[in-house]
Write a structure and sequence with these properties.
The structure is a single chain. By secondary structure, the chain is mainly alpha-helical. Among the domains are: 106 residues, Serine Threonine Protein Phosphatase 5, Tetratricopeptide repeat; 80 residues, Serine Threonine Protein Phosphatase 5, Tetratricopeptide repeat, CATH 1.25.40; 47 residues, no CATH class. 77% of the residues lie in helices and 0% in strands. It is built from 24 helices and no strands. It is elongated, with a radius of gyration of 32 Å. The protein starts with a helix and ends with a helix.
Length: 451
Amino acid sequence: MDNNISNELALFHLRKSLSIDANHIPTISLICEIYLINKKFDMIDDLIVNSIKRGLKSSEFHYLLAKKNLYCSSFEKAKFQIDQAINAEKNILKYYKLAIKILQNYNAEHLASPYLEMIIKLDPNDGNAYYLLSKLITQKENYKKKISLLEVTNDLISDHHQAQFDLAVSHMDTLHESNDSQNDYLKIKNMFSPLLRIDQYRPKVLYKLGELELIKNNFPEAIKLLEESTKHDETKGIASYKIANLKLLNEDFKSANLYFKKSFECEFRQAECSFNIALIHFQGEKPQRAFEEFKKAELLLNLEKKELEKKSKKSANLNDFDRARQLYTDSLNIRKLISKTHLYIHKINPPSSLDDQQKNLMKIIDLDFDNFEAHYELGIHYLSFKEIDKAQKSFEYACELNWEHINSHLQLARISLMKKKREKSKMHYQIVLDLEPNNKEAIRNTELLVN
């Protein structure tokens, strides 16, 4: 029998039943459920409003209105109604399950904890509730609870592959705290192993196994696994970016450039890729290519910063403060990268007037006060005007921000010597020698200062 015909037949009998007992709430509920299926939302409102006018009260009415509002994408109203239902009847499982659906559709899963905890209390065998609760835990200090929830999920749902994957990743994220890292490393590998046979999980498992080998400093095996991961569209971008950074660290600039380009093509961290490609050209003494790439990075970084700030505000408006804080921190990190980008553009193509150069450097520092290289460049600028005290202050900032910045220590040693502060000059030259034992200037002047 056609569903529409069977629904109409059911409605006929239910209405007949309601004509005999207009206050029979189960009948009202069933009629509303059929109206929901048929998308007759106004008729639900009429039926429930008329029932309330007759003095009927039921948590079911709030539940049905919440369902209706969910269907209509009126999430705030849906959330209000389901909370009303729960306040009226606190131990009805379907109310909490509907609340979770509403929050998921409203992008407000961060508010789901109390509802999920009640689902677990009312139905301890609901493995998915344990899993959803585990997803809400993002702070590393709470990972023991996260791991416990994922273990219960896997006990209750043996083929919940995402929970298996998340459990292995959570153990991996806490590996640095382990008292037996070698055994835990092998345990994590064994947890990932069955998922390698599942096509859907193979790419991200290969990537995570590559990261695991990096934690253990097994670089050749890590590169091999990450390379394998780049063969899959899902992980090509992130794996290429990871390999690029490893190559950059090892000063294999040609390979790093290639992998950053691959990552860019996959639209993964395009702004950061452009910045690093520009940096490689700059270090390779290709200023024009570096300048063009830095300008591209500047544009992309500003777009990314604005997007992160927008998302942060949106999360804050949804009371998801942990997420808002993380996004805002990400935007600040991008701001730091913008400051570095501006500095390299300044180095390649500085403004024509010395006054504009100073203003430009100060703007770069305003973007990120922790940019020690900008303080150093500003110090050099002040030296060109023989503003020794201002230059000294800039070099001191650079050293505070990066104690290993040799050039700043050299400048402070020279300024101290000029000001006849021999002990201070000797201290800075000694720091230079600690960092770079063969530095000729530091060797020569330290000997002079001692004698």
